[in-house]
Each structure stands twice: as C-alpha cells, then as structure tokens.
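testing teh design pipeline on a random one, pls ignore if ur not involved
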C-alpha cells in the first residue's frame, strides 16, 4: 500500500475513529489526540500484513482510548466542580441527514448519555460504545478488546443494564427542544423570572462546568425555585459585546454565547414533557474547542 493510499484509507475512516474516541472520552481534544496517535501507529505499521484496515484502525483507537480514559479518570477526581463532557457542534455540513441516524446520534452523544457513561468502567464503556453507537457484532468487539466473546457479552449486558436503570427520560423531538430553547433565551434576556419558572420542571437540575477557571456552580443545583433564581441572577451578567446564537450541540438545540468571535458559554437543555428537566452550563474555555 502506497503512502498516498494509506493516507486516503485513514482519512476515509477518520469520522468513525473520532466518533469512537469522543464517546469514550467525552472530550474532543482528547479524542483528536487519540486519533492522531492512531495515525502514527497506522503510518508505522506493516500495512501489507493488515488484511482489514478498518478493523486495525478501530482496534487501535479503542485501545488507546481505554488507556487514555484510565489516565484521565484520576485527574477528574481532583477536578474543580462538576465535570461535564466537552460540547460538540453537530449541525455542520457533515451532520447526519437521515432521520433515524440523527436520533441515534442524539442518543449516543447527548450530555445525559455521556455523563452517564462516566460511571462505567473503561472496558464497559468501550463495549457499550462499539455495540450501541456503532452496531459492532460481539465477535468483532471481542477481537478489538482481545477478550472472549462470552466475556464481551457479559460486559455489554452489565453496561446496558446500568444505563437503562439510570438513564433519565427526555424528549427526543428536536422541534420541541428548539421551541423551548427559544422561549428560555427570551425569558433570560428579558429578565422574565415568571416566564422562566413556567418553563422549568419542578425537579429540574442545573450542572455547571467552569473548571475552576470561569464562573459556574461547583455543585448541582436542584428544584425549579433554586435553578430559576440562579439563571435569573446570571442572565444580567452577560458580557456587553456578547453574540448569542442557536446551535445544535451534542444532537440537541443549545445556546452559544461568543465574545470577540470566541465561544464564551454554552447552555444546553434537556426537556421532558415540553419543560426543561436539565440545564448544562459550560464556561470552561478549555472545553469549548469543539464549538466551530
């Protein structure tokens, strides 16, 4: 295989590799590092002996992501405040067009799912991602992880039960999400506390991630009264030169605030029965590199 062909093969598989790494790690920057390391392994491999390039690349990416996840998990234990996944815009030119594919995308990269996946072991997370997000057969996952197929099935069953038991129920209709997001922004900008409270579910939760660098709550805020008052208080603290846009972030409508052309804040909402059930507030600049 010539060098040009090797580059073409790798680039053809890059979206899948990035998708696996991002779902494994929850950070676009970490995912890009893993994919770059996969390229180095591919570039230095005896490609004449590689019968299935896709299998080689996915196996390498997954194993590197598992190693990276084990390393970063120890750092997250000392993270300042809540740790949230890095937001990723999903409305660009390469966004999925097929309705069924878009539902799968929203389910597997949503903030709710990525936060939940943090509670799985690295091996469970790898099996869940390959099986549920990419539809890999158990035999292929076993080859990727160098495990027996029965062991992989056990890991998959344990991970699936864990997710099903803890996965919150949110609306999947993007039209409902977009309408609620627009009303939410109008209430915040207009200082309409009553209108804001009407949008919040009684058991709404707000999770913030400033990483100790920017302002964000250090603990989860719960109940409509507390979340509403907090949002009402910070809505008047928006920088005067801020630009507000609606984007699709992690498969759902979101608000992106930029200053001087750079992302400053991302507010993503999860709705249930047409009301806001969870608010994700991200201000850590190191986590906004996926907003493009």
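output:
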């Amino acid at each position: 295989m010539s060098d040009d062909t090797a580059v073409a093969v790798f680039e053809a598989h890059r979206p899948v590799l990035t998708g696996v790494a991002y779902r494994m790690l929850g950070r676009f920057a970490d995912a890009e590092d893993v994919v770059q390391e996969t390229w180095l392994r591919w570039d230095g491999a005896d490609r004449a002996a590689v019968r299935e390039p896709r299998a080689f690349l996915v196996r390498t990416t997954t194993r590197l992501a598992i190693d990276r996840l084990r390393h970063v998990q120890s750092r997250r234990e000392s993270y300042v405040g809540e740790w949230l996944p890095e937001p990723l815009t999903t409305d660009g030119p390469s966004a999925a067009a097929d309705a069924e594919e878009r539902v799968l995308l929203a389910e597997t990269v949503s903030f709710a799912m990525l936060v939940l996946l943090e509670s799985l072991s690295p091996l469970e997370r790898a099996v869940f991602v390959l099986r549920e997000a990419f539809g890999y057969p158990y035999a292929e996952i076993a080859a990727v992880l160098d495990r027996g197929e029965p062991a992989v099935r056990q890991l998959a069953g344990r991970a699936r039960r864990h997710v099903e038991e803890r996965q919150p129920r949110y609306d999947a209709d993007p039209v409902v999400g977009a309408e609620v997001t627009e009303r939410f922004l109008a209430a915040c900008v207009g200082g309409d506390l009553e209108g804001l409270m009407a949008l919040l579910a009684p058991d709404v939760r707000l999770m913030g991630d400033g990483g100790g660098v920017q302002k964000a709550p250090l603990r989860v805020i719960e109940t409509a009264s507390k979340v509403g008052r907090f949002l009402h208080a910070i809505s008047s603290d928006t920088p005067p030169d801020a630009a507000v846009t609606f984007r699709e972030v992690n498969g759902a409508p979101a608000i992106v605030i930029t200053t001087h052309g750079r992302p400053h804040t991302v507010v993503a909402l999860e709705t249930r029965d047409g009301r806001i059930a969870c608010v994700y507030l991200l201000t850590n600049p190191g986590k906004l590199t996926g907003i493009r």
